[in-house]
From TrEMBL:
InterPro entries: ArsR-like_HTH, HTH_MarR-typ, MarR/SlyA-like, WH-like_DNA-bd_sf, WH_DNA-bd_sf. This is MarR family transcriptional regulator. Coiled coil: none annotated. It holds the Pfam family MarR. Residues 17-149 form the HTH marR-type domain. It comes from Paenibacillus mangrovi. GO terms for molecular function: DNA binding; DNA-binding transcription factor activity. Keywords: DNA-binding. GO terms for biological process: response to stress. It comes from the Bacteria.
């Protein structure tokens, strides 16, 4: 398949829609490569790094909840947690509400390795956001939320496709 045919041309798109689709693909690819680089700097694989990101955002979750958040199997999540725990990024603890369950939470000392890597990108992102008024940011936020929902739906569709 030639580059000209991927993705398939959609002639009814406006030039702006075509440009947006192009930029979204570029943003997605660059985000993957950025996080791959971060992963390498942290001596993690990309999946472990992104699971750690979910944990850092959530505070503490069970392995089952992390599987739901990420779309990974519970078995894969257990392996991720084992590796993150061994590397010192997370700790397992008893669930305060149900002592039979275990929760996973970020290790405080793990954040000291991660935070500096995101300082510059956070400052750059805030600089970009400062160029938009509140109404424009609400529109951007709506678009990103819808893209995130769509991505989860597409992930679920891919999981349900049986290998031929």
């Amino acid at each position: 398949m030639s580059r000209d045919n991927f993705p398939p041309a959609v002639p009814e798109l406006t030039l702006t829609q075509q440009a947006l689709l192009h930029e979204l693909r570029q943003n997605s690819a660059r985000a993957v490569m950025f996080h791959q680089l971060i992963s390498e700097k942290l001596d993690l694989n990309a999946t472990d790094h992104k699971c750690l990101d979910f944990l850092n955002h959530s505070g503490q979750v069970t392995a089952g909840q992390l599987a739901e958040l990420t779309g990974l199997t519970t078995g894969a999540v257990t392996s991720v947690i084992d590796r993150l725990e061994k590397a010192g990024y997370v700790v397992r603890d008893k669930d305060p509400n149900d002592r039979r369950r275990v929760v996973v939470k970020p290790a405080p000392e793990g954040a000291t390795h991660i935070a500096p890597m995101f300082q510059s990108v956070m400052q750059s992102t805030l600089k970009i956001l400062s160029q938009y008024n509140e109404q424009e940011m609400e529109l951007i936020l709506d678009f990103i939320r819808k893209c995130n929902e769509m991505t989860l739906e597409e992930m679920n569709k891919l999981k349900n496709i049986s290998e031929s």
